[in-house]
Specification:
By secondary structure, this protein is α/β, with parallel strands linked by helices. The protein contains 8 helices and 7 strands, in the order βαβαβαβαβαβαααβ. It has one domain: NAD(P)-binding Rossmann-like Domain (Rossmann fold). Helices cover 45% and strands 15% of the residues. Strands 3-2-1-4-5-6-7 form a 7-stranded parallel sheet, with helices on both faces. Strand 4, helix 4 and strand 5 form a beta-alpha-beta unit. The longest helix has 29 residues. It is globular.
């Protein structure tokens, strides 16, 4: 499926250099969108830009730490200045934290997960929404997780706490944004075939095959699976959808 209404739209993606963010950036570029990708690693951004192969008229890379307010304000301003506006915000940057029982978790690691996953998402909304409010249109897609809907067996309490927070944040901000015709939804992927899952597999001692067996469709989500849902939520085909949670989980929570 293609979305003709996404051609020329300006899409801002945090955590865009790798994983789901990179897959979504590629998908939007294929639809003719203009894309800004934000990441903390300049090297990763440079490599991703080379891989995506789009020129500066279609692709902007911005080095920023999403947990720092000045950086968030700057990445929003740079995107709007470069492309003229922001139509879609894929509020995606996040980390998994440590795999450990809560009594063994370090407080500083909890704080880091919350700073990036929750504070970073909240700050992104705080600074992107005024751009959308001014033109009375826009779509925001927040990345949560199935771990933001139900607690699984893997001991990652900081991560699960952060993803439940994004779930709640989505619902309240959707109510605030609706009078401005701005839609806010969240996606909740199952384990996906990304470097984050490689880290979680390593920390838990579980193999990809073992975890995949817990998913009815028998495999991890791929970046394209997530990108397809994000494209739908960004497009006018979902124009009456806001404040909703979309599982991309292969039936895992059925």
């Amino acid at each position: 499926m293609t979305y003709s209404d996404l051609a020329g739209k300006v899409v801002l993606i945090t955590g865009g250099a790798n994983g789901l963010g990179a897959a979504v950036a590629k998908a939007f570029l294929s639809e003719g969108s203009k894309v800004a990708i934000v990441d903390i690693s300049a090297d990763s951004l440079e490599k991703r830009a080379a891989d995506l192969g789009a020129g500066p008229d279609r692709l902007l890379t911005i080095v920023a730490d999403v947990s720092k307010e000045d950086d968030v304000k700057r990445y929003v301003e740079e995107t709007a200045a470069h492309f003229g506006t922001i139509d879609v915000f894929f509020n995606n940057a996040g980390i998994e934290g440590e795999v450990a029982q809560i009594i063994e978790q370090k407080t500083e690691d909890f704080d880091r997960v919350m700073a990036i996953n929750v504070r970073g998402s909240w700050l992104g909304l705080k600074y992107v929404l005024p751009v959308m409010y001014a033109k009375r249109s826009g779509s925001v897609i927040n990345t949560s997780s199935i771990g933001g809907l139900v607690a699984g067996p893997m001991p990652v309490s900081p991560y699960v706490t952060s993803k439940f927070a994004i779930h709640g944040m989505t619902r309240i901000v959707a109510n605030e944004a609706a009078p401005y015709q701005v839609r806010v939804n969240s996606i909740h992927p199952s384990p996906a075939n990304t470097q984050m899952m490689r880290s979680l597999e390593s920390g838990s001692g579980a193999s990809q095959e073992e975890i995949a067996r817990s998913i009815p469709l028998g495999r991890y989500a791929e970046g394209e699976d997530v990108a397809n849902m994000v494209l739908f939520l960004a497009s006018e085909k979902s124009s009456f959808v806001t404040g909703s949670q979309f599982r991309i989980d292969g039936g895992m929570l059925s």
